[in-house]
Amino acid sequence: MINLAILISGRGSNMEAILKSVKKNKIPVKPAVVISNKPDAKGIKIAQKLGVKTVIIESSGIKGGSWDYDKKIVSVLEKYGVTPKNGLVCLAGFMRIMSPEFIRHFKGRIMNIHPAILPSFPGLHSQRQAVEYGVKYSGCTVHFVDEGVDTGPIILQAVVKVKNNDTEESLSKRILIQEHKIYPKAINLFAEGKIKIK
Fold first, then answer.
1. Region 128-147 average pLDDT
2. Structural domain tally of the chain?
């Protein structure tokens, strides 16, 4: 069985959707650990309520993409049995850039969710970009993480119509509903061996 680690920085709503799907036996994985880089992340308490071990590895003042920091994550992952052979690392609102060394170590075993239809609007504030650009449709993407910013192989996408009176907040809320649906589905496809990267 695949050992799942989820990395968070905030409220952990995608993490919660994933863990609840696991609890309902919709995803055949073992939730091994939730790691937060912020000690006050609301998601920590949610993970604990759902019976998952949590670890805080504080990152304030440490530049994103630091292998020295990511090595600490690797050692926690290994402690909880999340390895490049049997693990899956899911970034769920983890507001740090992973180091190239970390990405190479877990190649093809790191997933992320992004609130846009990639390759459109990568990076931060995607929903604001969509509203300002005037697109008629946006949505979300689950993808494997590579060394670029939101450039890895796409696994699943969901489309959300952009309304004329949408704000960044109103669009974000509707996209989030879809995120909670497709992230667990993508993990399930991975767990069942139904994803191949060509």
1. 97
2. 1
